[in-house]
Amino acid sequence: MNQEKRIIAGVYHVSRGLGKHFSLEDINLQVANGEFVFLVGPSGAGKSTLLKLMYMDDFPDKGQVVVGQFVSTRMKRKSIPDLRRKIGIIFQDFRLLEDRTVFENVALAMKVTGAGMPEIKKQITDILTRVGLYHKRYDYPPALSGGEQQRVAIARAVANRPAILFADEPTGNLDPVATKNILELLFKINAGGTAVLMATHDIELVRSFGQRIIYLEEGRVALDKEMIFVGDIRDRIGGSSVSESASRLSEYDITGGDEE
Amino acid sequence: MKPGELRYVWHESTGMLWRRKVPNLISVVIMALSLLILITFLAVTLNIASLIEKTSEELRVYVYLDDGVSGEISRDIQIRLMSEPGVDEVAFISKEEALADFRETLGENSELLNAVEQNPLPDSYRIRMKQEYIRSGVLEAMAGRVGQWEGVEEVVYGRKWFERGEKLVRSFYMIDLVLGLIVFLSVVFVISNTVRLTILGSSRTIEILKLVGATNTYIQIPFVIEGALQGVVSSLLAIGMLAIIHRFTLQYLPGVSFIRVDAIVVFVVLCAVIGALGSMAALRRFLKM
């Protein structure tokens, strides 16, 4: 995958005041296609606020957020759904509909785009197989473990083949084993070409991977650097399955889509 | 809308009704009970109104002629009466007919009349007025005018009784209007709150739908359809309950009529609209519109 580097999400001189905590001050950062970036910082540093600005659930007081062809300062409320269909978002609390099966939860992301049922079935079968939950497709979320629920959420987030996946403390509610599995899954998705921006307060977790890290403290970027690779991350995901999933994930369309 | 999107909206609407059957059922019952109050009130009003109308329809104006008035003058009076505004029908009642009627009214006491040598009753005209002219102002004016005519002794229509009745009807309609408005507003309030509660219960669903890129329209439509359906079902339920009440009432008050079919249709449609509007209003907050 020798694609040239393109910025697919950028935050430029962004400030957002939300009281003493959670406010942001002159933030600058860019995420290129296919990148995996950890957004680290203590609670209250503004990580969630920053992510919210990036998936445009909130808008900056100053500065500009650009994701794909969507620009926060020129954005109409009406086009927010368009943006959401081209990105993926996951949360600490999974945000699944508990009265719908695993399949229906994942299908929702495609249904709202008006996709036909045969296409939805095909795509979801594929995704659920990849996240290892095809056998649980008719189960309801409350019957699943936390790690499994997060995998359903990830499946839903990538159902529309997004260019970038925003993850807000995705392992915050999970035990170490599930945390490791989720991270591996995120790396796998990243290997397929989807950029990942993952917020976490767990510095230890991040330290064990060699990745670009943006450290957020009191609403400012305190550090933004590529950490030294401790070997290839792909070794961590494990052997042959990587190349296979990578090739399949490489079908993902990572461009922002057509202008409307 | 693409066919895929239409299908989605349909699946969401029907699916949602099924998934949330318990809260929906509770809402429908609450709404039906409030609507029952409204519709019962309506039925009572309509019955009283039709009773009033029937009573006023029976009103007749009597024009008594002078004793021994000539046939010519009498015919002249009849022609002039016919051209009076609001007069629907004029019937001549000869003094003999009047006596026979009187005899009948007296029943077994009619022998009293045998003591009277001469027929004391005058010839008269009985006038039926058009419905819209049965108002005290109009009647009084006509009575005054006709009373001046040559050969007319007296014009009688039960003025005191009529005026009192008219006042009663007017105040009844005023009270009815105020009460009806209060009942209507409280029913709308209850329904919109019930709908709001069901939507509050779906705030998470709405949030997630927004997250995955559903447009406001697609989020709204299923809820609006749900609200309208709740309105229809609960209004039908209310009508059903009223029908049972009506059946019981008939045993004690025969002749009480049920609500007309066209009124039922209007009522059901109105409830559907209230339900749909209630949903839309409650959604506005969630969708930041």
Topology, please?
The complex is a heterodimer of chains A (260) and B (289).
Chain A: E1 7-16, E2 24-32, E3 36-40, H1 47-54, E4 62-67, E5 70-71, H2 80-86, E6 87-91, H3 102-111, H4 117-130, H5 146-158, E7 164-168, H6 176-191, E8 195-200, H7 203-207, E9 212-217, E10 220-226, H8 233-237, H9 239-249
Parallel strand pairs in A: 3-8, 3-9, 6-7, 7-8
Antiparallel strand pairs in A: 1-2, 1-4, 4-5, 9-10
Chain B: H1 3-19, H2 21-57, E1 60-65, H3 71-82, E2 87-93, H4 95-106, E3 124-129, H5 136-147, E4 152-156, H6 159-200, H7 203-211, H8 216-252, H9 261-287
Antiparallel strand pairs in B: 1-3, 1-4, 2-3
Overview of the molecule:
The complex is a heterodimer of chains A (260) and B (289). With 260 residues, chain A is of the alpha/beta class. Chain A is built from nine helices and ten strands. The longest helix of chain A is centred in the last third of the chain and has 16 residues, at 176-191. Chain A is globular and about 45 Å long. Chain A starts with 6 loop residues before the first strand and ends in an 11-residue tail after the last helix. Chain B has 289 residues and is α+β, with helices and mostly antiparallel strands. In chain B, 71% of the residues lie in helices and 8% in strands. Chain B has helices at residues 3-19, 21-57, 71-82, 95-106, 136-147, 159-200, 203-211, 216-252, 261-287; strands spanning 60-65, 87-93, 124-129, 152-156. Chain B has a four-stranded antiparallel sheet. The two termini of chain B are 21 Å apart. The mean pLDDT of chain B is 83. Classes of the chains: A alpha/beta (260), B alpha+beta (289). At the A-B interface, helix 2 and helix 3 of A face helix 1 and helix 7 of B.
